[in-house]
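User: Hi! Is it possible to get a structure for several chains at once, not just one? Here's what I have:
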Amino acid sequence: MGLPDPQLFPVAAMADASRKLILNNRSALQYTLPCEPLKEKICAYMAGRGVDCSPDSVFLTHGAQQGVYLIAKLLLDLGSSIVEESISYPGFQHLIDAFLPVVLSVPTSPVDGIDICALERILKGGARPAFLYVMPTAHNPLGVTLPMVKRRRLADLAREFRVPLVEDDPYGSLFYGSISSAPIRTFDKNWVYYVGSFSKVLAPSLRIGWIVAPPEHIRSLSVIKEASDLNISTLSHWLVDAYLESNEFAAHLRMIRSVYRERRDAMNAALLEHFGSTATWIVPEAGVFFWVNLPDSVDASELLTTCLENERVAFLPAEACSRGKHKNGMRLNFSRCNPGQIADGIGRIGRILHRINSVDPQTMRNDFD
Amino acid sequence: MGLPDPQLFPVAAMADASRKLILNNRSALQYTLPCEPLKEKICAYMAGRGVDCSPDSVFLTHGAQQGVYLIAKLLLDLGSSIVEESISYPGFQHLIDAFLPVVLSVPTSPVDGIDICALERILKGGARPAFLYVMPTAHNPLGVTLPMVKRRRLADLAREFRVPLVEDDPYGSLFYGSISSAPIRTFDKNWVYYVGSFSKVLAPSLRIGWIVAPPEHIRSLSVIKEASDLNISTLSHWLVDAYLESNEFAAHLRMIRSVYRERRDAMNAALLEHFGSTATWIVPEAGVFFWVNLPDSVDASELLTTCLENERVAFLPAEACSRGKHKNGMRLNFSRCNPGQIADGIGRIGRILHRINSVDPQTMRNDFD
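Assistant: Yes, the chains can be modeled jointly so their relative placement is included. Here is the combined structure:
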């Protein structure tokens, strides 16, 4: 799963902030309006990612998942369609299936990401989905980060065909090069609904996500959210606001990026050692996942069963994120374990892989449609 | 609104518990499974209300509103109907309207509550709603608490006609007599879905509610909830678990009941002094609201506008909780303000009421259909 390492949580600062907050700010425990100072800090954080937005375009949510859910409730009418990639985040598939939409699938690849030409053909063919769902940075599960030219193209298509684009960006701040990739939201503020989260960079159980949306839709999102859970966890929100006030966040982000970069490199080294020519993968620029393509002959779901039973190692098999259509890929997480555990785990999967399969690497595929 | 008084929040104990929790239990900040010890403590709390349930029938939610929302998602199919009272909780009306159900309205009254005979006629007539929604203790907004014989009848009807009954009980522990009324859930465990909350008795922003449901439905609720917001605020849940561990909760409950009882009595005294024969009301046994019937000639929404403009006092007018059908009633909250403020506020409304209206009390009604 996309679990951050709890050993990296800034617990001392958060414990101190929570004690002071509960003692001194009784409205933090009451039904209250969303925390405005937090919205302002989120705008500053987004500015660091290149996104220009103001608090009136920020809507606070119970994690990114609720952000996408509320957008789906806002945009999806009964019987309408949505666009998703042929391999995409299982949490999104689960979320969207509850709305019973027509799912338009666009091919994607762990090397290049979404096939923009295929998407354009769908739109030029007359399809008008309620929205396009993409995760342009550190795609879950493929790990791929889209180049700037594709981001711009996606914004152009959304605008040209007047189709909202939902940009899910939980991993955007976990980049391992020198700079982060500008969100698609930087290219269009009318058709792109950006969804962010502190789950991966601070702590998941705070359940703090946000939407950056055209301001005229914020009121509707609020009405939809109020019906479903009345009020946000303002306690968490004020807590994170107090933590961000301390200015420790920038150093914390640098620290977790450094730790996760080391783990990414450890996983790459372990894959080179233990998977060798049996598999292919791209070293991710950002996020917490490697996607590994296995030979066509390998069913990753079966491999998972064997790995769990014999080696107590787990991963997400391709089947779980492709609506059952693909078998020979696996998503590996490198954020949760230390380098030693990573080397050990990859070694164990590698042993099973070699035992059940002796393969011709020519049979491996890099495109999914 | 149904706001508790933040001055009564147990902040010292909560601040201490939160600091220790964040420092010592890193899984409290991580994605985790729902907090089992909290479920056990909720079972003990429910046992104190006479409800026999085990942790496998308890489902933790982001407040009671989400509890009712998830049950609606579980039980409501497209085009099906639900039963609500002719005057009912506006938050429920807002929630359920998003599902576009056929709304079957049953008459109710601030004196006797839901008209069971009318409900029985609807069911005997062949209607099979997806569920019945009731708030048997401290009805919001009517303030009425159903007698035991009506609770038993409701459970019998649910069972006889195989129609689930959703028992919304946020105020069940705020009773001002010697004992609490047994929830309807005590009379049936297969057809009654009980929804509880710590919002009114601890603090709202913790967002801790729960459903007590037949265990075979817990898994489905989990699937529905995961799609909408992935994970609960485990931090809040562990925090309340730690607070409950300290055994201060029973004394806290006695304290807030005592304070709110005094405020209820202050509001009754103020109503007697300032509303006199212009209005009728029942002194509530539980909860945080008085319902005041005004003469037919008074439009409470217009009164509200005048009160806000001239006296800066607010209440909920009947129109807002009767789908626009009733005008001459008002819901008054007594939990948020101290006795002096209550006397002052009722005095101000009374002045306006007498100025705009000189009435014949014979025109007042006590039944709503």
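Chain B has eleven helices and eleven strands. Chain B touches chain A through 54 residues (CB under 8 Å).

User: Great, thank you!
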